[in-house]
Amino acid sequence: MSFETISERGLVILGCGRMGGAILEGLLKGGLPANAVWVIDPNPSGWLTGTGVHLNTELPAEPAVVLLAVKPQMMADALPQLQAMAGGDTLFVTVAAGITMEGYERMLGGETRLVRAMPNTPAAIGRGVTAIVGNPKAMTGDLDTAEALMSAVGQVVRLENEGQMDAVIGVSGSGPAYVFHLIEVMAAAGEAEGLAPELALQLAKATVAGAGALAEQSDETPSKLRENVTSPGGTTAAALEVLMDPQTGMPPLMRRAVAANIARNRELGK
């Protein structure tokens, strides 16, 4: 399915909060006509009114794509208004965490073409990463369409199966929160050693942002980059001895954190 088809038949977005809004903004900047978009949102953001999209108006009978961007706990109440579009030529793409394809089949019907997508919050600045996977009814072209949509807010990767989605949510979906907390604790440690709070926070944010950019752009592995800045017996090595401790350091802590994330995600999906 091409963007030309989406322009002709329309894109419906259910929920236009932070993530739905970021995707819409990226699509509009990428050239999708505003009059090809219908947004359903009972409490729309003010910026939507000036975009030219159809806001809370009558929907096309058979749009090319429906993007589901409401919170998981709201999905069961929100989907009935779209059930007439399910099971036909409309592709459903969901960015909601927790709800499995089996759950959507119960709400929409088993014949619905569906792609699950899991972006993360850097999508708000076009630097997100999204994992996608289709249900048995989704065709290769449907995955191409979903990838084109989600590319509006960053990188896109394809999963081999839906079972991998839990790990994606645990690593990249929730991962920005882990990094934000890292910034918090680095700044707090600097402040505890005598830096002014504003300076400590500036140093922590710039260090994390710069290191992340270097890791993404470099051909070397993160392990090699770490080794490059670690002199034997030096100050960095002393800190890493604490952080890399196999019992109390970051490796076991991160494994427990991701495992707790996955366990909670599975609870929400029931």
Structure description:
- Residues 12-98 form the Pyrroline-5-carboxylate reductase catalytic N-terminal domain.
- This protein has 270 residues and is an alpha/beta fold.
- The chain has two domains: 3-165, 3-Layer(aba) Sandwich (Rossmann fold); 175-268, ProC C-terminal domain-like fold (Orthogonal Bundle), CATH 1.10.3730.10.
- Helix content is 47%, strand content 13%.
- The protein is built from eleven helices and eight strands.
- The protein has helices at residues 3-9, 18-29, 72-78, 101-108, 140-150, 165-173, 175-192, 197-217, 222-228, 235-243, 250-268; strands at 11-14, 37-40, 54-55, 65-68, 91-94, 113-118, 128-134, 154-158.
- The chain has an eight-stranded mixed β-sheet with strand order 3-2-1-4-5-6-7-8.
- Strand 4 (65-68), helix 3 (72-78) and strand 5 (91-94) form a beta-alpha-beta unit.
- Helix 7 packs across helix 8 (197-217).
- 30% of the residues are buried.
- The mean pLDDT is 93.
